[in-house]
Amino acid sequence: MSGEPAGAAVDFWPGSLWRTLERDAAGRHRITDDFLRGWLGRPELVPPEEAGPAERALHAALVARPRRPITPVSLLALEDPDARENWELFAAFRDHLLRYATLEEAYLALFTSGPVRLPPVFADGLAWALLRGILERHRDPFRARAAECLFRPQRATVVEGTVLLADAETVERQARTGGLGSLGELLRRAQMPLAPVELEVLSPANAAGYWARSERFDLVLDLGFGREGLDALARVLEAWVAQLLDVAVRIEPVMRIRDERWSWHVGLDAEATAILNALWEGEEVDEGRLARLLALFRLEFRNPSVVREPLRGRPVYLGLASDPSGRVRFKPQNLLVNLPLGEVG
Known about the structure:
Layout: H1 6-9, E1 22-23, E2 29-30, H2 33-40, H3 53-64, H4 72-76, H5 81-98, H6 103-112, H7 120-136, H8 141-148, E3 154-159, E4 162-167, H9 168-177, H10 181-189, E5 200-201, E6 219-222, H11 228-245, E7 249-254, E8 265-267, H12 270-280, H13 287-290, E9 293-301, E10 316-321, E11 327-328, H14 334-337
Parallel strand pairs: 5-6, 8-10
Antiparallel strand pairs: 1-2, 3-4, 3-11, 4-6, 7-9, 9-10
Helix pairs in contact: 6-7, 7-8, 7-11, 8-11, 9-10
């Protein structure tokens, strides 16, 4: 289901800052001053009321000229140690972005140019912007909801054998407030009972409404085999690889890996990586741990010549899993840096 024309009439994910980027002739994203200003508008960087004059001056100067140097002296002048740490992280992130011609290059370099020292929020923000650009060409609400999994942690629940993913932050907020916002928080503090809140599952019947509520992150994704959500996630992963690596792949969900010549796999998160490694090495994996493997995919390269010689013609298996608490922390970079590619581009 495409969700058109409603998706075309309503912008979605304005917080991704995608609208502030520019595209080059190859369809890659160029970083702009307005994109950097968007990051300066985040709550962690906007000076609070109690901020000192040095912090206010630094913020104002960068809003005016987002590419101006951020010197150690200007950071040492900041009055609040927590603010200083936030600005040091932003300076490292901003300087990293400015070293590359495109957002795609900058994102890849976070994971290929040495240990990542930045908090996940920075990589998640870049993935959000990149995915927004990818989805501009395919405005499908199921793909948009599936793409949320790549930059927002999820909470997995299995209901009658079907895997359901809900936004982890939304679930935690609803659990605190019972869906009543600040009023619910007050009731919780007063130890008054709150009615359980059930989140709505995205379906063909309500899909067109996704666009207007896109940043509420309150729709549940059904990852049942053969359902729209699982197929949408496969399509998003295909587009992710194409946009970042310029490599065409075909990804299809599978129920299990039945391949005596199983040669390569990629875990889409840390838990899936560990489980697939154990299975590949022939270790016994108990049923409880195996049940945390939520989805499996088979990836094939449309042009096998991009693959390293010993593995040409062989599929790559992908896995997505939850941790013991049911949390799913997707690592979309795994799909970019762990494929068995030769020289690309």
